[in-house]
Amino acid sequence: MSQEKIEILKRSLAREKAARKAAEKILEDKSRDLYYLSEELKATNNKLEHLLTEKSMQLEGVFENILDAYVVMDLHGNVLKFNEAATKLFGYDVNKESLNVTKLIYKEDVEYAMSSFFKLKTKGFFKNYEARVYTKDKKVKFVHINASLILNKDKKPVAAQGIVRDITAVKSLHQQKETILKELEKRNNELHEYAHIVSHDLKSPLRSINALISWIKTDNESILDKNSLQNFSLIENTLETMEKLISDILEYSSAGASLKNNTPVNLNELVNGLINFLYIPKNIKVIILNELPVVIGDKTKFQQIFQNFISNAIKFSNKEEGLVEIDYKELDSFYQFSVKDNGIGIEKKYHEKIFKIFHSLNKSKESTGIGLSIIKKIVDLYEGDVWLESEPNKGTTFYFTIQKN
Amino acid sequence: MKGIVFTEFLDLIEDKFGLEMVDKIINQSTLESKGIYTSIGTYSFSEMLQLLNHLSKNTNISIDNLLLVYAEHFFSVIEKSYPGLLATYKDPIEMLSSIENHIHIEVRKIYPDAELPEFTVEEKTENSLIMIYKSNRAMHHFGLGLMNKTFEHFNTTATIALEKIKEDGTEVKFIIQKN
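^ Those are the sequences you sent over. The predicted structure of the assembly is below.
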């Protein structure tokens, strides 16, 4: 073999050796890396196992502890799992007997149940299903169900779960409430009608008496003495008071009716209208200090309030120059109004009493003692308050508030 | 560049031209690795360029033809090492059109730092395929050799025409028509 050939072989051999060593080093490094990697994997695995155990325990806890019934079923409706509440609600022990949910559906609710089941399959969930179910002992219960599909990691549905709440008691209470409310409404209407009838029936004999009295008076005017004429006049006044009383009671009975006809009411226009409409003696001035607001409510009711306050102020004016001042102030959640007069005033001890029905301090034919009761009733309706400040013989200021909507 | 490309290359040279040629081109080149290659190492591409250049000069065979022959040899390495990968294909057109979306993805799993050429499918029928090769290494003939062998592997042949889109061969259109 030539020297040159030997050299070539030598060099080739040297390269092969070096390559082998390089390969060994690479492999060693790789296997070291692999070792560390596998250690790391082991640690991660351990951690994951712990996490899995922990999460499983948490789920198990939720499953057993929720007060509502929890049901897991396969996609054909076969029950896989009941928690304690579910076992108690339906009466089946699914560990001992197989159960398909279709067996639980109340016969009249089958269609609804099927459409909900279809929704579950297509949309993946349904909510607020309310229907009846049979329990094992053939009792019927009302339940509320929220359900969803359980998906595997490829997002394929594998089962379904539902939380079932027994709402039998709530349903029956609700039904009772509805019945009672209907009954109440009926009664209220009846009462209202009754009040109308009674007032009409009471007024017609009063009118008859009034007519008869006036005929007797006219027929016998020449033979009646002064005393008798005065008595006749007293009878007429009493009859008038009586009629006013009946009208006021009717008004009072309708003042408490629920808040209907809610529209914006321009109180400035309303009160100005009243000032023009009411009979105000020349010596009394009624003025509005601050422009009144537009509020939402029943126009008639606001009219009743202001009319009663203003009439009272006029009625109980005893000064040569009477002054009635209507004012308004806006608070955070209330409108506050006031009606101030310089009339006879009200003693402190009557401040509470006057809002009670039939408590008129002055027995006169215009004063039945119902006006303030009507105001109180309306203000209550608007969740407001009514009160007064007064000094006998100096004047009275009535305040009332109504809640802003 | 992966070491296996070097070791297989030198083995083929030894086989065809003798150990003297291997020794000669290593000595003629300036190699960081000193010509010491192991299949599991990674080496600079410029070393492959130098070896190819010197081999071409010494043998009077063009680099493209050398690459073609080498690729045909290299296909057998793939056949031997990754029979499973080839077995997932029933048809050469299917296999070639999925270089980018399947084969290279698998390659990257084994060699995360591999620098691979890009093969974009431009047109595909049952019997024909047009692909654009892109790589700054301009080793399109290596690709051609592998493609030829691919058809052979499925017991068929094809006519493959190359059209250079860029003069330096870094972007080449492969027009493949199954016979």
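Chain B has a mean pLDDT of 92. Helices of chain B lie at 3-17, 19-28, 45-59, 63-81, 83-87, 92-97, 99-110, 140-153.

Shout if you want it in another format.
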